[in-house]
Design goal:
There is one protein chain. The chain has 6 helices and 7 strands, in the order αββααααβββββα. It is α+β, with helices and mostly antiparallel strands and about 260 residues long. Strand 1 and strand 2 form a beta hairpin. Helix 2 runs parallel beside helix 6 and helix 4 runs antiparallel to helix 6. It is elongated, with a radius of gyration of 24 Å.
Length: about 260
């Protein structure tokens, strides 16, 4: 709920981003519920050894997850720009009346480094109150700054056609196996992903040993990969962190406008 009417729009847009992120989480949770995988074995490249593997037994809903991710990225990035527009209108720096054909210079500035950020501010933030620009600048919204999440959000949104989210690019964050080998030659290993097959190798033992397990606990997280920039992020936590940070920015700018008496 906004105390200032101008900030209703960025909050609504932020809400859309949060809703799309929730849809993504529901889709991922649905996939990883129940029986979605199986354990099997096959010979190693060295025929005297056996590999213990895990693979998925149903297709990952990559298309639907990709759509939800793109919608969430777009809404979150748009909410940032709408914060600046709301502040400029509230302060009377830009008049959004009918017939105003000027392009509002109210973008949320994002760049690769501090120098280019200042150049972006000079080009794109001309209608923003100076104190609002100071808040944006303090966030350090550039690749090498504390607010580098802004840069990643911007890149992933702008090059969404190159985004891929799939189980074959999943990160195995935790795989606990309680098992035993009949001999002394076998060993558990950090689970490694065979991208081509979408299979995880988690144990290796001589062919004449028997492997058995009592418990297999798996915690998978899908990964979002952008092929254009070679960026990989875990989308659920990334979107949640971005949404929380954007909400703080909206709160701070709205509070500033109220304090400064920007009531238009």
């Amino acid at each position: 709920m906004s105390a200032h009417p101008r900030f209703k729009s960025p909050r609504l847009t932020l809400g859309v981003g949060i809703e799309m992120a929730a849809c993504l989480k529901a889709e991922v949770d649905s996939f990883f519920s129940g029986d979605f995988s199986e354990v099997f074995q096959e010979p190693d490249a060295n025929p005297f050894w056996i590999l213990q593997k895990l693979r998925f037994t149903k297709p990952f809903p990559s298309d639907k997850c990709g759509q939800y991710t793109t919608l969430a990225l777009t809404a979150l990035r748009s909410a940032l720009d709408q914060v600046g527009y709301a502040a400029a209108c509230a302060a009377g720096c830009f008049d959004p009346t009918v017939g105003n054909r000027k392009t509002p210079l109210t973008e949320f500035p994002i760049s690769t480094d501090e120098v280019k950020l200042e150049q972006s501010i000079a080009r794109k933030c001309g209608h923003l109150p100076p104190k609002v620009v100071d808040v944006f600048r303090a966030i350090e919204p550039y690749k090498t700054g504390r607010g580098n999440w802004c840069w990643y959000l911007n890149i992933l949104r702008n090059s969404s056609a190159h985004n891929v989210i799939s189980a074959s690019a999943a990160r195995l964050s935790n795989m606990e196996v309680h098992g035993a080998f009949s001999g002394a030659g076998g060993s558990f290993k950090i689970a490694t992903l065979d991208l081509e097959k979408g299979e995880y190798v988690f144990a290796r033992h001589p062919f004449n040993e028997i492997f058995g397990y009592e418990k297999l606990e798996i915690d998978f997280h899908p990964m979002l990969h952008n092929s254009q920039w070679d960026i990989s992020v875990e989308p659920l936590s990334f979107l949640a962190n971005c949404a929380a940070a954007i909400e703080q920015i909206i709160d701070e700018i709205e509070a500033l406008c109220l304090k400064e008496g920007y009531t238009k």
